[in-house]
Write a structure and sequence with these properties.
Layout (H helix, E strand, L loop, with lengths): L1 H11 L7 H6 L1 H12 L7 H8 L3 H12 L3 H19 L4 H7 L5 H12 L3 H8 L6 H4 L1
Amino acid sequence: MFVEVIRMHMDQLAENNTGWLAGLRDPLIGHALSLLHGRPAHAWTVDELAAEVGASRSALADRFAHLTGHPPIQYLTQWRMQLAAKRLTDTNAKVAAVAEAVGYDSEAAFSRAFKKVTGHSPSEWRSTSHLSVGDERLHG
């Protein structure tokens, strides 16, 4: 039933609507999104992604940005940070392990990228994501 609701929603999207659902509706961009979501830790380039989906680099980049609102590699970075934020919140994995899991070779590069996207370092994110409104010990 959930899948049917999503399909109905996608069918009703306006042609000028942007975002990942709009991208999924397009066969070329939907394929690219599937690759990025399926292998987020891969060292994707726009050239490689274009080759995988059977498009030119410029055609993929233009269409991807038009439909999703972001260039492919910027979209990938956002997706990686979402995955990292969830891992930091839901697991006790070391920051270096989270960095590697989302495609960063160095903890420092990951930490810089994470802070740029979220406004917090990975350790800050982890410590503040566990705050509970009802936990007086944490709120003084």
